[in-house]
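Practice problem 4.
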């Protein structure tokens, strides 16, 4: 497999016998070069001794030598400075675009590396490299976790930048979309993001001082003020209470005023949702948050402590929803405030990446540093991924740990991308 040959070359996991070209010249790899994942030779600026001559240039790797011609490198000037062609099987000589024959070396993948790699690909249990994790030093684990943590923040930053583009360059609107998305808490995240995009914040701002009107716009744009969204057995009760009709009438007036159109209510998912996660409850909490002027980006950027963050994101429902989960369905009175775990998730998935993204955008390292500090202060997420890593001996104490391990699971384990994983490297490197 060419990918495995790349890995062996990059990490110099060569067989114990001497390396040599097909014409018998000894090969000493001083520097394998810089791995190139874009167009062009596979490794740039490698340093290799071939015979008694030091060559500095590029290296190309293939399963078979004939792949050189299948990929048309013999006609591509970018491959004229290849100083060594490394292959799994030499089945032909190769020439570059200048007609020059290239030195070739057949590289064997050490048996223990090949066997370990097959194990990593075949195992269905996660993480597949679990056997080596207890043997790793704290320094190695910490270094990889720190890199994964940064990688995950960078990934979230790209998602936020994309939202900024979709919001016409408005970071304020993109923040509201990000906040709303995370109010979906997984099951309805995509729908909440779609909802936030159809909520005209410029129109809502005209009614910022009226919580009822804010909730009317929020509920109406979600499509939840259509009578058919209420189950038949609750419709009469909802109509008798009057709150549904008042909200709907207010929304119809505001929708006409601001030319608003609601989204399709059928997008919302209720199956296997706990009542406190029903869209009605989460939207009411967001309405309260907006009314209290706690849903703005400037307020987030002013937070310097975890307590300030908790206070910023703490919200409760409007009075009607203290005794309801859906229209017409009554419940015991409860302010339905965000739980501690929900608050923790909002801070991890909204506040931290937003601070990091704005810090990168504005060149303010203090915001990026604050994002990392918050991750180290916040409690780790408790989910099947973190529990899995905990069982194999990895520490999961802070949100920084849990975010790193979620990144590891989703971007490396799930994709069987063990060759880019440092734990995978340690596993492949074992000579037993």
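Answer key:
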């Amino acid at each position: 497999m060419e990918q495995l040959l790349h890995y062996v070359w990059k990490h110099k996991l060569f067989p114990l016998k001497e390396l040599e070209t097909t014409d018998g010249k000894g090969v000493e790899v001083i520097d394998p070069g810089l791995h190139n994942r874009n167009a062009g030779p596979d490794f740039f600026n490698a340093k290799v001794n071939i015979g008694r001559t030091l060559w500095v240039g590029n290296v190309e790797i293939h399963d078979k030598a004939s792949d050189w011609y299948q990929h048309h490198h013999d006609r591509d000037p970018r491959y004229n400075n290849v100083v060594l062609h490394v292959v799994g099987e030499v089945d032909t000589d190769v020439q570059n675009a200048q007609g020059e024959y290239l030195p070739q070396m057949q590289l064997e993948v050490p048996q223990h590396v090949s066997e370990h790699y097959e194990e990593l690909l075949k195992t269905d249990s996660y993480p597949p490299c679990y056997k080596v994790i207890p043997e790793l030093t704290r320094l190695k684990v910490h270094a990889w976790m720190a890199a994964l943590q940064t990688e995950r923040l960078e990934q979230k930053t790209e998602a936020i930048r994309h939202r900024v583009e979709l919001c016409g360059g408005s970071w304020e609107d993109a923040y509201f979309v990000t906040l709303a998305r995370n109010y979906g808490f997984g099951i309805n995240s995509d729908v909440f993001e779609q909802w936030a995009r159809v909520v005209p914040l410029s129109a809502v701002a005209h009614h910022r001082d009226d919580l009822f009107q804010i909730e009317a716009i929020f509920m109406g744009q979600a499509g939840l003020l259509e009578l058919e969204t209420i189950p038949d057995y609750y419709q009469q009760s909802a109509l008798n209470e009057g709150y549904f009709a008042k909200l709907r009438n207010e929304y119809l007036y505001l929708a006409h005023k601001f030319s608003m159109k609601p989204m399709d209510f059928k997008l919302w998912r209720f199956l296997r949702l706990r009542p406190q996660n029903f869209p009605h409850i989460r939207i009411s909490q967001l309405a309260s948050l907006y009314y209290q002027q706690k849903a703005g980006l400037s307020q987030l950027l002013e937070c310097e402590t975890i307590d300030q963050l908790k206070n910023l994101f703490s919200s409760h429902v409007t009075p009607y929803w203290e005794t309801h989960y859906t229209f017409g369905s009554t419940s015991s009175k409860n302010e339905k405030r965000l739980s501690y775990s929900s608050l923790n998730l909002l801070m991890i998935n909204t506040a931290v990446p937003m601070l990091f993204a704005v810090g990168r955008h504005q060149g303010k390292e203090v915001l990026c540093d604050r994002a990392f500090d918050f991750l180290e202060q916040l409690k780790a997420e408790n989910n099947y991924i973190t529990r899995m890593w905990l069982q194999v001996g990895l520490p999961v104490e802070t949100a920084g740990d849990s975010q790193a391990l979620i990144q590891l699971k989703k971007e490396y384990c799930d994709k069987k991308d063990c060759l880019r994983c440092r734990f995978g490297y340690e596993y492949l490197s074992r000579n037993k």
